[in-house]
Amino acid sequence: MLLVMRFSAIGDVAMMVPAVDSLARQYPENHYTILSQSFLQPLFAHCPDNVRFLGIDIYNDYKGIFGMYRLYRELLQHNFDAVADLHDVLRTKLLRVFFRFGGIKLRCIDKGRKDKRLLTGKNNKKFRQLKPTIERYADVFSALGQPLAQLDFQSIFGSSRGDFNMIEPLTGKKSNRWLGIAPFAKHEGKIFPLDRMEQVVAHFANRDDVTVFLFGGGASEKKVLDEWCAKFPRTVSIVGKLNLSAELVLMSYLDLMLSMDSANMHLASLTATPVVSVWGATHPFTGFYGYNQPLEHIVQVELSCRPCSVYGNKACHRKNTECMTKITPQMVIEKIETILFEVNYDERYIFKPIE
């Protein structure tokens, strides 16, 4: 039995799914337990039967060193043979210390921190593609004697889509193209200016052959999206109306998702939905691009300072955020229209081996 640990962030946990799902199918005789935050369970709900999810409230129920030790004692009852740490933060490091004293085999992700510092550095930048995070996860499994020969994951819903009954009360029947727009991200450096995003929303909302679904969370984001819905026809905000399971179902029926470099890019990717992603301070070279998403779906401008951050949480040293302000609404609109009205979505599933 293998314990696989990753507590956050949502996008990083989402990137575990293709690797874990593929691993479980390749080794059906083995058993895998995912340890993460409880609300992320829907991401793994459709994995093979030899995958189970162990959800915890890491921030309230297991605080500090003593909390981690109590969690360790509870985990011992499951008799794990090995532990894969796909997070490598203080909490998981403490758990590794405890497991090491217990004589359990351990392997930890190599996040490539040095390479990421060189990639995002202001001076002497080494601009090159770094190993994708999913491959870093696969490396951990390989180090534990379970090499992942191929990523054969398609979608959390397999070769189909989710249960439409879960979303129909909100969406109604599908009679035109559905476009999802997720305009927010955790950090400012990853957010396309909202006045420009509003122009994108307005453009598609005024087409009678498109329905726009707006994704977000929290009071401030809800306020913005509600204001857009009041202004524009055929727009639906889903904030507070669907749980994560239903959001994933809705994503599986979208014809396209427009997202920042954020969790929604990864969630939509898990449903095999094409994603147009807008990148500013961050860059796909850091290894956090959406699973199986074509590189030509990216909207970005190449600047010598990009990327300046792995997570988009650093202030722009140029003080002008050109990485975002040089992207125009028309650039985003043209990218979406090229894909939304020309791609055959029945042929969008791709099988990607690990090289």
How are the SSEs ordered, and which strands pair?
Elements: E1 2-5, H1 10-14, H2 16-26, E2 32-37, E3 51-56, H3 64-76, E4 82-85, H4 90-101, E5 105-108, H5 113-120, H6 133-143, H7 168-171, E6 177-182, H8 194-205, E7 210-214, H9 219-231, E8 235-237, H10 244-253, E9 256-260, H11 263-269, E10 275-278, E11 298-299, H12 322-325, H13 329-340
Structure report:
The chain is of the alpha/beta class and 355 residues long. Strand 4, helix 4 and strand 5 form a beta-alpha-beta unit. Helix 2 packs parallel to helix 6 and helix 3 crosses helix 4. The chain has 13 helices and 11 strands. It folds into 2 domains: 142 residues, Rossmann fold; 168 residues, Glycogen Phosphorylase B (Rossmann fold). The two termini are 26 Å apart. The C terminus is likely disordered. It has a 6-stranded parallel beta sheet with strand order 8-7-6-9-10-11, sandwiched between helices. A 5-stranded parallel beta sheet has the order 3-2-1-4-5, with helices on both faces.
Instruction: Count the E strands.
Output: 11
Main sheet?
6 strands, parallel
Q: Helical stretch count?
A: 13
What amount of the residues lies in strands? 5-15%
List segments where confidence is low: pLDDT < 50 over at least 5 consecutive residues.
345-355
CATH architecture of the largest domain: 3-Layer(aba) Sandwich
Mean pLDDT: 94
Overall 3D form: globular
Order of helices and strands: EHHEEHEHEHHHEHEHEHEHEEHH
- What is the CATH T-level topology of the largest domain? Rossmann fold
**Rounded to an integer, what's the Rg over CA atoms?**
21 Å
The CATH class of the largest domain is: Alpha Beta
Portion of residues in helices? 25-40%
The end-to-end span amounts to 26 Å
